[in-house]
Amino acid sequence: MSPPKFSVGGLKDLRFSKKESGNCILNSYLVLLKTLSPNSSCLYFLLVYFSLYLFALPAFAEVSLRLKTGQNYGEYLEQIGGRGAVFGNSDPSIQGAGSRITYPNRFTYIGIGMLVQINGWRWESEFDSTLGYVYTGMGKNEDFYWNENSRSQVPGFDTSRWRFRDSGYSFENTDRFIIHNSKTSVLDHRWQNRLERDFFVYKNIHLYGILGLSFYKNYFISYDSSYYAKPNMFGYTANGNSFENKIVELQGGLGFRSKHFSDKLVFDVSFAPLIGLNRSEDHHVARNLHSLHSGFGNGFLTRLESKLHVTDNISFALRYTAHRFYSIGKWTTSGIPTNYEDLAKRLTSNSAGWNWITNKESRWEVYLEYKVK
To answer: If we measure between CA atoms, which residue out of 88, 64, 90, 69 comes closest to residue 25?
Structure first.
């Protein structure tokens, strides 16, 4: 399903031309590379980097190419506000306000990848993309007030209390006064790199360390939005909002690999905590509200994989991945109409200027691998 095209204010046009989003795998790869950075130097760097795999590695290195596809499940949450933001309301029972947008994150994607193995070292690099906008489901935009029972909780790893909270909902016991329900589409690109090193090998058992670096770039568009506002207001708008998010993650962890039937069948499990930086832009079309977000977060990446070596050169694999990223940061707003000036002032000052970005997802994928060297 193709979403309607509309102006996204400060954001650039999120659509690709038919020429760029064609069915050619190589062209799709180039389109994906171009989205990783606004300047073309990144494209040239990655092309050279990819070529070094094939031509500059030692002769004894094993090099394999991958073609993959998969299904992503989960949701993105964007939350702003807090205690002290009161929308200019004089009601003494209202102690704060905020907003939460939930984007469903279910889509099918394709990708290419490469695996290099040298003397116990393994280097894996993969590119995944939806190639264009795909429908993900119904999203939700909620505006709410804080009352005396409302509270905020830190999602993800909370080092002050030494606990992990696997929930993207930062605010609890709030009173919603506006609810938007919208169709949602996403354009998703990912470049994931992973370095592994065996530190213990006994017969068919391998224990290894992991160092990973991943880049994510997502564009969400909400449209055909219906809303309800207390006490009895209903409405509809064709253009809801757009959301662009970029994440850079650094992962470090451990893995376990076992080989069976003369190395024909391989089972792999790994877990890697992560830290990351994100920057996002949020544009509400109907309200002419444009926000910039930046933050720092944590999470984890865990992976289960089973690989079958069909021949000496051809392998087939099934992989499950669970991924969490919880970010907290500051945000600024511009472009609000006159009657929202107080909202902008209060939401971007002191404790009310915080924002939370959450990516909670899992994915199933299969890939075909061919050893070329």
So the answer is: 69
CA distances from 150 to 97, 122, 175 (A): 10, 48, 9
Number of H helices, E strands in the chain: 3, 16
Residue 76 near residue 103 (C-beta atoms within 8 A): yes
pLDDT in tens, 173-207: 677 777 888 899 999 999 999 999 999 999 899 99
Peptide linkage before 337 cis (omega within 30 of 0): no
Domain 25-371 has CATH 2.40.128.90: yes
Instruction: Enumerate residues 6+ apart whose C-beta is below 8 A from 337.
Output: 287, 288
Q: For the beta carbon of residue 232, count every other beta carbon within 10 angstroms.
A: 6
- For 114, 301, 305, the CA distances from 124, given in Å and listed in that order, are 6, 15, 14
Q: Calculate ∠ Cα 333-249-268, nearest 5°.
A: 145
The confidence band for 354, taking pLDDT boundaries of 50, 70 and 90, is confident
pLDDT in tens, 210-254: 999 999 999 999 888 777 777 666 666 667 788 899 999 999 999
The C-alpha angle with vertex 326 and arms to 322 and 331, in degrees rounded to 5, equals: 145
**Tokens 């024909």 found at:** 264
Q: How far apart are CA 257 and CA 98, in angstroms?
A: 46
Count of residues for the chain? 373
Characterize 251-287 residue by residue with b for buried, 16 or more Cβ atoms within 10 angstroms of its Cβ, and e for exposed. Answer: bebebebebeeeeeebebebebbbebebbbbbbbbee
Rounded to 5 degrees, what are φ and ψ at 179?
-130, 120
Which residues neighbour 79 within 8 Å (Cβ) at sequence distance 6 or greater? 98, 99, 100, 101, 168, 169, 170, 171, 355, 356, 357, 358
- The answer to whether residues 303 and 346 touch, using CB atoms and an 8 Å cutoff, is no
Residue 150 has pLDDT above 70, yes or no: no
Torsion of CA 283, 287, 291, 297, to 10 degrees: -80
Q: Which helix (H) or strand (E) holds 343?
A: helix 341-347
SS3 of 153, please? coil
In order, the DSSP letters of 80-127 are EEEET--TT---TT--EEEEEEEEE--EEEEEEEEEEEETTEEEEEEE
